[in-house]
Amino acid sequence: MSLRIEQLNVAFGKTEVLHEISLDIADGEFVSLLGASGCGKSTLLKSIAGLLEARTGKIQIDGREMNGVLPEKRGTVIVFQDLRLFPHMTAGKNIAFPMSIQGIPKERQKETVERLLGQVQLTGYENRKIREMSGGQMQRVALARALAANPRLLLLDEPFSGLDERLRAEMGELVRKLHLENGLTTVLVTHDKQEALKFSDRIALMSGGRMLQYDTPQRIFKYPVNREVAEYFGRMNYIREKGQEIGVRPFDIRIVPSGNDGMVKDIVFMGETAEIRVDTPKGEVFCMLMSSELEAMDMSVGDRVGIEILRNVCVGMAKTEE
Amino acid sequence: MRKKLTPYILLVPQIILTIFFLIGLITGIAQSLGVIPAFGLTEPTLFYYKEILTKPDMVRSVLYSLRIAFFSALFSTAAGVLLCAVLVMSRRTKGRMMRIVQLPIVVPHVVVALFVINICSQNGLLARVIYAFGLIGEQQEFPALIYDAGGFGIILAYLWKEIPFIVYFVIALMANIDGKLGEAAVNLGAGKVQAFFRVTLPLCANTIYSGFLIIFVFALGAYELPFILGATTPKALPVQAYIQYTHPDLRNRPYAMALNGLIMAISLLSACVYLALMRRSQKKLAGNK
Amino acid sequence: MKKKRFAITNMILALFVLTVVLPIAVMIVWTVTERWAWPDLVPQVLSLRALSEIFRRSEALAKLFASSIMISAAVAMASVVIGTLTARALVLYEFWGKRMMYFFTVLPFMVPATVFAMGVQISFIKLGLNNTVAGVVLSHLICSLPYAVRLMMDGTAAVGDRLEEQARVLGASMGQAFFRVTFPLLVPVILSSFSMAYIVSFSQYFLTLLIGGGQVKTFTIVMVPYLQGGDRNIACAYSVIFLGITLAVFALFEKIAGRWGKNTDTEFYT
């Protein structure tokens, strides 16, 4: 289902938390709302779902104006960060909740619960009490429950933030799989750039209640509209070259042992990768390379090296897709 | 817009009841100032307040009620805190012991009056036990604890009800503080009792004062116990007020209301102190987290 | 040293238990006492006179039952319903006048019922509520409600509106979200609010006397004349019966609340 947001403003009391947000999501798309905590991404999610009222602006789902439409009539389901499973119901009852609200017959509810539990790899957990489940299992129940509501738009509010790294990746894969299998339109709120880059068709980067850029992962990485966007996806070097300052990512600089552009100031071993700081007349340059490359070079602090810029990032020169 | 109206809609029944309550208070205050249009009294005056604060029997009522309320609150609070401390230190803050604590809260004051008559009258069980031990030779030697001018029976009845109330009011907080900070104090070398007096008790102080005030205000304004167990003279404030209220001469009505006004003034003053204490203790406890 | 302290604490506790339980035990003995003359420690003659007298006039008892328990139950029920609504407004919403409204809801805590009763009677007379059951219920409600509101506010704050928001986005209407999600979680608090409001109403004497005008009979109104008339057996018997019922109902409530607590995960939403 498609979603269209036009110049949305949302306020809590007198303080405005969302300014002029515009966003277009096509049917079947997977979009991430990326940003630091407090940037307004959860607020945007709640506004889409109708839990918060907009001060001005439009939200349209499938071309239909949503202003004044109650949350339960929108077909937008949120999986919250704190999961919000109903503690007085079993896992099965939690998943059946949206169906029992719709008045679907008990038999069909049961079938669907079993099918969904299968999809989230929790077969046989129907009668499990919520407090007897682990964090990862609760995430899965919350996802299954959201799917049971047959959402036109699935909204995920950092649902994996409480998990360890391995489980987090696993849940991400699961969400991506469910998104494709069920033909969903999904919005994922996250502060993790890797997660956003990995799963999304498009990324909307937010800061301070404003939308900074909305584009595909490749383009937002390569053509950030400003330094803030560029820096959100990794460290940047700004080097003056031919009268103009260019942005370069640490991996896009090659160290040439035979050259003489500067002096190695610091080498930090990070496992698979390594960081090297080079003092040059143009300022300090921060580069990254694979550890194996570093070993092959046999370099130490104080050595003179050359640097070669492989490609630069076109900050502020992006032609945003319309 | 819809969401903005929701809280007001939810509050409609509460607001209606509040209006009834305020009508009661405002009528009472207006009448205490001598404004009763139905009786042809329209000029506000402080005359009735002056009267009740100078007429000897009225002044005696005021002092009698204040004394009963003060001693009931003082002894209930002291005994309640002691009992609470014993319960906390012997780790009996849950289960059967708390059932016993809750029991008097359920019992109406009228029934407590019955208890006091059963136990503490000159024909009561206490007098008989003392007689059996040979401490008194005759029924009349047992001191009159009820219908007495000192209000002793009334205070006893309040104690029976309010000591458990104090325990109930304070114990959760005290157990919590003692569990966390008491342990730390013991760890730092304080004795268990020392830790209680130096750490736990001071942190519970505001709640304890609040409990005192609640009992004080209640005992000052309650009618049942002084009506059933009190002496013919002096009469407690609410009893005196009711007599004036039902006096055949309707011009006595403002006296009743002035007495009520006095009760209300003392109550509201206590309420302000209570609110200030609650705010202070919230800050204090928050600062300790 | 340690043993000695234990002895002291145990003695204090034993004394306390005795002071609470003894009057109740004596009251129970009095219900079946015919003659208990000075200076004996136990009654000389036992009989079921008081009990049979009460039960012989079973119609009067039934009536008293109906009016007394029904009035308090109605008051408690209304307190819980209104308390739930008020608590929701005060806890879950921000609105103009919130602090003032909170002050008014707790005001009846601070003003004695006697003061309120004598002030409001004239208005009740004008409205035709004086000497009626409705009037008594209304006046009791005003005094019981603050207790229910206090308890319900704590309960509502603990449950919050997070789960209701979730229910809404899963397709539940406002009413469905409340009744299927919040309400089951509030049951223990609702039961204790009900109990508290019931006790406050059940214990009222003065308010019932004034607003009920002797026409509306409740337990305390019937008790007091026996107390003053010296027919202690009857007074004790009435008290035992009514207290017994109240305690039995509360015990049942506690059991339900306990069972409920086991089925819901209270830690989950704190």
Task: Describe what you observe in this structure.
The complex is a heterotrimer of chains A (322), B (289) and C (270). Chain A is α+β, with helices and mostly antiparallel strands and 322 residues long. Helix content of chain A is 29%, strand content 32%. Chain A has two domains: 3-224, 3-Layer(aba) Sandwich (Rossmann fold), CATH 3.40.50; 235-309, OB fold (Dihydrolipoamide Acetyltransferase, E2P). Chain A has helices spanning 41-49, 91-102, 106-119, 135-148, 165-181, 193-199, 217-222, 227-232, 291-297, and strands at 3-12, 15-25, 30-34, 56-61, 64-65, 76-79, 153-157, 186-190, 202-207, 210-215, 237-241, 244-248, 253-256, 262-269, 273-280, 283-290, 304-309. The longest helix of chain A has 17 residues, at 165-181. Chain A is elongated, with a radius of gyration of 24 Å. The relative contact order of chain A is 0.13. Chain B has one domain (33-287): MetI-like fold (Orthogonal Bundle). Chain B is 75% helix and 0% strand. The model of chain B has no long low-confidence stretch (mean pLDDT 87). A two-stranded antiparallel sheet of chain C has the order 1-2. Helix content of chain C is 80%, strand content 2%. Chain C is mainly α. The radius of gyration of chain C is 23 Å and the shape is globular. Chain C has two domains: 1-47, no CATH class; 57-269, Orthogonal Bundle (MetI-like fold), CATH 1.10.3720. The chains are: A alpha+beta (322), B mainly alpha (289), C mainly alpha (270). Chains A and C meet through strand 6 and helix 2 of A and helix 7 and helix 8 of C.
Strand content of chain C: under 5%
For the record, the count of structural domains of chain A works out to 2
In CATH, what is the homologous superfamily of the largest domain in chain A? P-loop containing nucleotide triphosphate hydrolases
| Secondary-structure-derived class of chain A | alpha+beta
Provide the spatial order of strands within the biggest beta sheet of chain A: 6-7-8-3-9-10
What would you give as the CATH superfamily of the largest domain in chain C?
Answer: MetI-like
Strand numbers in spatial order across the main sheet of chain C: 1-2
How much strand content do the residues of chain A show? 25-35%
- What are the segments of chain A in which pLDDT stays under 50 over at least 5 consecutive residues? 318-322
> For the terminal residues of chain A, how far apart are their CA atoms?
19 Å
